[in-house]
């Protein structure tokens, strides 16, 4: 018996056409789940579907979606339901960096980061949970947060605040939606190599590696099993948790 067979499950992964989202989508497809990628970049969406489709297991489809736009979220959900019939799991992963030092903070810099990283998760959950509640079979909400939400990091106050908002949303959603059989958890990721981290000052990566007790970055392969566990029934009794996944960084 395969304890982590996700055949028959449907998962949405926002921002799933690259980075952490695509890594988690790989695990879901390999375990048999059908995956709907919601992303803004048509070329990356297409490439992600081709890669996921070659893995065997579940099916993958991509739908254009900017989580800044409520109407696009609604349209992506409608397209997902038209293709797969339901949504069992939602990975609210889409986000941006754009950290600023406080003396350099502008209203636009603050609003842009908060809008995508926090409001985007809330609006995605708004539409997905309405479907889950109407369907009446529960569901799972997983958000990509960051270790910066509970730690101090230079020149990143707006980013840290946006991810702290995701943590608060996660706890509130878990409490509110428990009666519907819907769980909500957040991943406080540490340092993983992504397009976002590639644009950072190389000295930051060197400093971060020295600070991580395991002395290495996170590996994308490990995210596959993480996603499968939290999408599976074996995580049904876990809700409202903001889990650091960081090689021990948050305790260093």
UniProtKB/TrEMBL annotation:
InterPro entries assigned to the protein according to its UniProt record, in alphabetical order: KR_dom (IPR057326), NAD(P)-bd_dom_sf (IPR036291), Sc_DH/Rdtase_CS (IPR020904), SDR_fam (IPR002347)
UniProtKB keywords: Oxidoreductase
Pfam families: adh_short_C2 (PF13561)
The keyword Oxidoreductase is assigned to this record: yes
Record bears the keyword Magnesium: no
Domain (Ketoreductase): residue spans on this chain: 9-194
Family that this chain belongs to: Belongs to the short-chain dehydrogenases/reductases (SDR) family.
Protein name: SDR family oxidoreductase
Annotated organism of origin: Altererythrobacter arenosus
